[in-house]
Design a protein that fits this description.
Chain lengths: 119, 375
């Protein structure tokens, strides 16, 4: 598992990367009440806003961590946004991306590095 | 948060695990570990305890007599101050010369004085306003040695009655003073959640003990500003600086109920408040725009600033959302905003623009959740 400074986690499954938000991010957001997912087959660039998450407190975005193509989305989050709070690093993944080159993930933090990053 | 003021319950908030945020110059709990959603639902199901000590408590003492003080206050507000029975409070509004709202507040007749509770962010303004206009008839005395707590929800009466049995006899908008273990409490049966409940002014020195005594009841949970906001939104109540401000008149805001016949055209004390010409004309002719409830059809919350259109493409920009979010009890996004009179009829379908997309909303009656005041 890799982590970004935007509090996303990235898990490699074969040639795709599964993306979600960390427990820390979910806790900061508070109760999630709305999730908007990207379109499957959308080609996105690193930094694009690909998901919208709204909690009772505020709206925020998930940015594409890398360039790639969206190949899967977790529709369960649309009907049950609260999953993001219940199981942020498990069932509440947001989308899957196909990358040309998985080595771009090397730049992201390991779990230990992310823990240090959180302080 | 070194430069922020703290209420006398600051250390208790920290002990309870509150997340503190700056609000109106104070470090205030936005939520406790329970979280906004559960805090909201708990208040509707049992009882929630809110620290609202940041709000302004102001005593107005007559220099000559109460009649002169009441007349002076009526010259600042389009409501009835004269005739308010001792032991009762009313909702009031300071208006400006254009009929806009300078603040909204509660004022209570307490025998030899009037007690006002004003918004935290408007406290300094309101005190200056009162001093500028009422110094001939009143001593304006900000209360600086008392905390203010709100206990709200269906179990509020039972819990508070365990400490102060007298509250059982109170009805909505009654005010009493009771000597207790916690010093003299000034209690009003009112609140900002749409629930039955109480606002209790307690001497600062005893406030923490009093809060702990309330929190000891299994029905009571501490509630932060996050849930306070979603509760008042579901109840259709205005937040100053958002739903009402100096550009919005009481008539536009749907607060005409606060203006009695006696202050309207043909009334015994017609007009005589700032902006009277404008407000009385609006009462007679109807306002150009009105505050309405808005129900987004989808799940996406429409927050403050969301632009409302009369069409899903092109069309006219009608107005905007002034408060919006998710209503935990409603179980859906809810919002309030201003639209022109012609678009304000409940059932009207409009469109809110979110992230470049127009999404349908339906104009609806307020409140979103029925109030349960003990009238």
């Amino acid at each position: 598992m890799k982590y970004t400074e935007e509090h996303e986690w990235l898990r490699v499954e074969g040639d795709v990367v599964v993306v979600g938000i960390t427990e820390h991010a979910a806790e900061q957001l508070g109760d999630v009440v709305f999730v908007e997912l990207p379109e499957i087959e959308a080609v996105v660039a690193k930094g694009d806003e690909v998901c919208v998450i709204e909690s009772v407190k505020a709206a925020s975005d998930i940015l594409a961590p890398v360039d790639g193509e969206i190949v899967g989305i977790n529709e369960a989050l649309v009907d049950t946004p609260g999953l993001v709070n219940e199981d942020p690093q498990g069932d509440a993944w947001f989308f899957k991306m196909k990358l040309d080159d998985l080595s771009v993930l090397d730049e992201f933090m390991t779990e230990d590095e992310y823990k240090d990053f959180l302080g | 948060m070194a430069e922020l003021a703290q209420t006398c319950l600051y250390s208790l908030h920290n002990e309870l695990g509150a997340k503190l945020v700056p609000f109106a110059g104070y470090a205030m709990p936005v939520q406790y570990p329970m979280g906004v959603m559960k805090e909201h639902l708990h208040t509707r199901a049992a009882a929630g305890l809110f620290d609202v000590s940041h709000m302004g408590q102001v005593i107005l003492r007559p220099r000559r007599d109460m009649a002169a003080l009441e007349a002076g206050l009526e010259a600042l507000m389009p409501v009835a101050v004269q005739g308010l029975a001792v032991g009762r409070q009313r909702y009031g509004l300071f208006t400006n010369d254009k009929g806009g709202i300078l603040d909204d507040l509660m004022f209570a007749a307490r025998g030899d004085h009037i007690l006002m509770v004003v918004n935290a962010a408007r406290k300094a303004h309101d005190i200056a306003h009162l001093q500028a206009h009422l110094s001939d008839v009143a001593l304006v005395q900000p209360v600086t040695d008392r905390a203010l707590l709100a206990l709200q929800g269906p179990r509020a009466e039972a819990v508070l009655a365990g400490l102060v049995p007298d509250v059982r006899a109170m009805r909505f908008m009654d005010v009493i003073t009771v000597d207790t273990l916690y010093g003299p409490l000034w209690i009003a049966r009112a609140g900002y959640t749409g629930e039955d409940g109480f606002e209790i002014s307690v001497p600062e020195a005893r406030a923490e003990d009093f809060a702990r005594a309330l929190l000891a009841a299994p029905d009571v949970a501490p509630i932060g500003l996050g849930a306070r906001d979603s509760l008042r939104l579901e109840a259709g109540l205005c937040l100053y600086g958002h739903d009402i401000d100096e550009m919005i008149s009481p008539v536009m805001a749907g607060l005409s109920w606060a203006i009695p016949k006696s202050r309207r055209t043909g009334g015994a004390r017609e007009g005589g408040f700032p902006g009277a010409a404008h407000i009385l004309a609006e009462l007679n002719d109807g306002p150009a725009a009105r505050r309405v409830g808005l129900r987004p059809e989808g799940r996406a919350p429409m927050r403050e600033g969301t632009v409302i259109w009369d069409s899903d493409t092109g069309g006219r920009d009608l107005g905007g959302v002034t408060s919006g979010g998710f209503g935990p009890t409603v179980g859906a996004p809810i919002a309030m905003g201003y639209v022109p009179d012609f678009a304000a009829t409940p059932g009207t379908r409009l469109w809110g623009e979110l992230r470049g997309k127009r999404l349908p909303v339906t104009v609806c009656e307020l409140p979103f959740h029925p109030t349960t005041y003990k009238r």
